[in-house]
Design brief:
- 2 copies of one chain form a homodimer.
- Chain A has 298 residues and is α/β, with parallel strands linked by helices.
- Chain A has 3 domains: 2-76; 86-207, Rossmann fold; 209-298, no CATH class.
- Chain A is 62% helix and 8% strand.
- Chain A is built from 11 helices and 6 strands.
- Chain A has helices spanning 9-19, 23-35, 41-73, 101-110, 122-130, 143-148, 164-177, 190-198, 209-222, 227-249, 256-297, and strands spanning 92-95, 115-119, 136-137, 156-159, 182-187, 203-206.
- In chain A, strands 3-2-1-4-5-6 form a 6-stranded parallel beta sheet, with helices on both faces.
- In chain A, strand 2, helix 5 and strand 3 (136-137) form a beta-alpha-beta unit.
- In chain A, helix 2 (23-35) runs antiparallel to helix 3 and helix 8 (190-198) crosses helix 10.
- The longest helix of chain A is centred in the C-terminal third of the chain and has 42 residues, at 256-297.
- In chain A, 29% of the residues are buried.
- Chains A and B meet through helix 3, helix 4, strand 5, strand 6 and helix 9 of A and helix 3, helix 4, strand 5, strand 6 and helix 9 of B.
Chain lengths: 298, 298
Amino acid sequence: MSRYSRLEPTQRYLFAFALAQGGEFAFVLCSFATQNGVFTSDMANLLVVTVALTMAAAPILMTINERLVQPRFASVLPEREPDEIEERDNPVLVAGVGRFGHIVARLLRLNGYGTTVLDHDAEQVETLGRYGIKSYYGDATRLDLLQTAGAERAKLFVITIDQEEQALKIVDLIHEHFPQLRILARATSRQHAYELLRRGVQHVYRETFASAVDLSVDALVALGLPKHRAQRAAQLFREHEDASVREMAQLDTEDMKGYVSMARLHIANLENALASDKDVFQHSADAARDAGADASAS
Amino acid sequence: MSRYSRLEPTQRYLFAFALAQGGEFAFVLCSFATQNGVFTSDMANLLVVTVALTMAAAPILMTINERLVQPRFASVLPEREPDEIEERDNPVLVAGVGRFGHIVARLLRLNGYGTTVLDHDAEQVETLGRYGIKSYYGDATRLDLLQTAGAERAKLFVITIDQEEQALKIVDLIHEHFPQLRILARATSRQHAYELLRRGVQHVYRETFASAVDLSVDALVALGLPKHRAQRAAQLFREHEDASVREMAQLDTEDMKGYVSMARLHIANLENALASDKDVFQHSADAARDAGADASAS
């Protein structure tokens, strides 16, 4: 019924389910009709039961509409027009101005590199604007928008959004239309890092990895390890992990057993690498001490 | 009905809603009863309508059960007993073995520091175990579990879980019962970092901050900035951001206007700091070049 009136698709469902609530009036109408002999009492009984059950179903249907039907429409709602992009010759484009992207934008701008930032969250764009961090409202998966932003002339494209699929979509778009752009991308997980690497993205940053390493270095120092030793261990760990992620990205994802045994091997290798590094480290420290002892003896 | 049988609470709802599906049999029963004069046709009609509507409602009720009712029970389901903790004298306890926590555990263990890890996600504990990374299933917000894990004798407590409230709860628990423990904590957002700092946690790591800085350094180098310059800029940025977060944590959270103007001020200050650092840097580079020129002239 609502299909033929001029309701938005999302309102149609609300309307359809709300019809069920018109039932109360039917009770009144029904008892009135029976008293006047329009309905037989059989028919009236039938109607009353139907109406009662429909009414009982109404709140349930409303809940279903709210929780299950409406969310599906969220993505097809008419969108606001993207902001007009004033900067068109910046060497860097950034997708996303969230907690990850705004740090990148600030650091690059502070060093004098023009950086154009797009984000599809209008509220976030507005909020960051209040802090003096400029970005444009717009969907970075749209080719026309990237063209307007000067993707043909830029050098770097930085992907910092946290939706994995969208990030991969942008990668494909750039590879197809702007092959000169170098991509640096945030990965939300190890699996996502694999996907990015398999698509040929060379610069991939697992989003919580570096902070976890930073924390570990401070923990090691708090436990009594000299700072340079802690930093050296972290450096080795980073290099090893980076190589491991790159290698494992090439594995067959279906072969879970092979994957697990490769991961175990990498972890064991790292243990050996750190242990032998410690020996070398210890050895050179001893040598230095001995040299000092020799010098004072002479 | 199901309340009196021995069904688990979650199964009761499934059972109650499934009863609605028993209706098909009622049709058969009903027409049989009418033919044998047990029901009048009025009664039969009424019953048929009731049954038909109940049947129509059944799939809807099943969906509601699955989507809305069952999830509410997820948190009250009888919990598996926590794993028995075998290590009780480790210097480090870690809450959480996700993508953040397992990095910390690995780096500390690789350097020879015994690290006991607790996680309330049994599946994650199992998965990491397959890669040779040991952790215990258990809720780190439980005082008795922390005691068993040796919190009285440990030196550090590392919080790496991503639920903000739970993380704060652990902080309070530790401050009350194990004041000797130094806490290092992952923060999921700037606001969460403020909360942790206000509670007196000195070591706070915003989870995506360091990776964003890492990416920025590589971007700066790709744009042509010498590596040491990029690293120096990142270092200044980190120090400045750290001081800024600590200072802003003390601000009145209700005073949004004061907050925004303070944030703008910090951002502007950083710009000046980097600019003057660049001058100093440039100056010393020039001085070095001049010195070299002098040396070659002499």
